[in-house]
Amino acid sequence: MNMKDISSAPRHYEIIKAVIARSSLPTGRQARQSYNIMLKNKSGFTLLITILIVGAVVLAIASTLFLMSVGAAKNIAVAEASARAGAMADACAEEALEKIRESTTFIGYGTLSLGGESCGYLVTGLGGQNRRVVASSTVSDVVRKVKITVDTINPLINVTSWQEVINL
Prior knowledge:
It contains two helices and five strands. By secondary structure, it is of the alpha+beta class.
């Protein structure tokens, strides 16, 4: 080593120290503190993302369950309305058969009201003792219709067909 290198050593040390002092990089204790803060921020960020993902999954499950329950409630309401409409249509058909029993020449129409619901019926002659009875009831937009065919009125009414129909 020559003399020039030895005399410049403190000077290089001072330059390096000045560069480090001016740089924004932390050293020693500051570096450890910065690293610990970054770790805390990283774990906080991870926790936040985890909470958001779990929240989204819970929200999706809750929404699905809510929509399924609304759909089930609508299905139940339609099924109940359909059962009431069917019962009313059958009641009207029975009323029409009673009218035929009371008067063997009866041909016409009528209505029946029971429990806040109503229905209508039409009796048409098909020649001789043959009759056709069509009864219909509508409950909450659900329509049920029955068609009955009668071939004998006297001495007893003989029903040859009783069927639910969609359209006549």
